[in-house]
Automatic annotation (TrEMBL):
InterPro entries: MFS, MFS_dom, MFS_Na/Anion_cotransporter, MFS_trans_sf. It is a multi-pass membrane protein. Residues 23-424 form the Major facilitator superfamily (MFS) profile domain. Pfam families: MFS_1. This is Major facilitator superfamily (MFS) profile domain-containing protein. Keywords: Membrane, Transmembrane, Transmembrane helix, Transport. The chain crosses the membrane at residues 23-45, 65-83, 90-110, 122-142, 154-176, 182-200, 243-265, 277-297, 309-329, 335-357, 369-392, 398-420. The keyword Transmembrane helix applies. It comes from Brevibacillus choshinensis. Its main location: membrane. The lineage of its organism: Bacteria, Bacillati, Bacillota, Bacilli, Bacillales.
Amino acid sequence: MSQLGTTATAATGKMTKARWIQIGLPLLILFTVSMIDKSNINILLANKPFLQDLGIKDGAIKGTLSSIFLITYAIGQFGWGFVVDRIGAFKSGLIGIFFWVVAMVLGGMAESVSALFWSRSILGLSEGVLYPIALTLTAKWFPANEQAKAQALWFNGNSLGPVIGLPIIAIVAQNFGWRESYHALGAVSFLCLIMFWLMVRNSPSEHRAVSASEKEYIEKGANTAKKELADTSEVKAVLKNPIFWMLVAVYGCVSIGFFGISTFLPSYLTEVKQVPFVQSAFVNAAGYGLAILVQMGSGFLSDKIMKRAVFVGGASALIIIFLLLSMFTSSVMGAQLLSILLISVLLMPAALTMTMLHKVASPRVMGRIGGIFGSVSYALAAVGPMVVGAVSQATGSFTGGFLALMGFIVISLVLCLVLMRKGY
């Protein structure tokens, strides 16, 4: 008998939900662990033994350790997009996750800052596979009326990661050592590799857990979208579509806002609002926890009305409102509550913006289009922390930096109004 999930014959009988268990769940776990892996460095930069062992004293080095990941992540997404379309999401995922494990092992072995740079670079390049495989698998495994829910599910890993990982990393580093935090995450990442190999396949027809009725249901949803996607089966056609570049701009602007705000919000709370350090960490964790509910709720609702831009535009407006209120409130408690609400809507626009990609690109080219989309967007995202840092230093206040970020969120809101008029 062939290995689990490798036969091309689907079981007959009642409707199964293999698409949620065999695809949705593994993607959720992968994004959760990846977020913990990439944010490991943020916790360790506050760990004195880590800084002493590697001789890190310069603030510029600390910033570079964070930005090098975003840069290589953008490059990785671009390259992996073409690889995924060439060899499939399954093989691409196995290769990417393997080198992701290697990156964590190298991080735990690092004896110098340069070795840590290599670890972060390899991690960025290898984790770049995630969005191309996730978008490709979502396009092939879920009908159009479920794609927002599916993407909200796995995108929630970006919220679950900080909620679960931040305290665990701190506890492991404090009680066992910073190298052990890398080794532990390397082991967890290796388990993710095994999980991916056992559970995921390129399409429903390759998976034995999919019943005939589920396969028919998925194919029916795909056939419904074929007419609309008739002219999107070539990369050039998608790249010539102004809607694609509007989506890139929306995602890029909200990413600038997310990374700019999330990087400096803890410092802002402690330095300006006088919130204790540990308490500010809990404020951030609470915000990411609430973000999970916000993303799932918006995913379900947007699948019902099939108007994603309405929710992305609404989230952009709320980001502006919550950020303004949190900056100008004189209440410490009010600032914390508004920060939780701000974090809860920061991530929501990203998942729904990527869902709109399925209206402009077919599954056949989704890997490449997803790679180009992510590459440009995350290259733009690197601007966020730099804008807040530079403007705040020039003005002597976080207010100037946050107001500068708000300009990008306004652009996102305006573009969403245009997308709404076009039926998105």
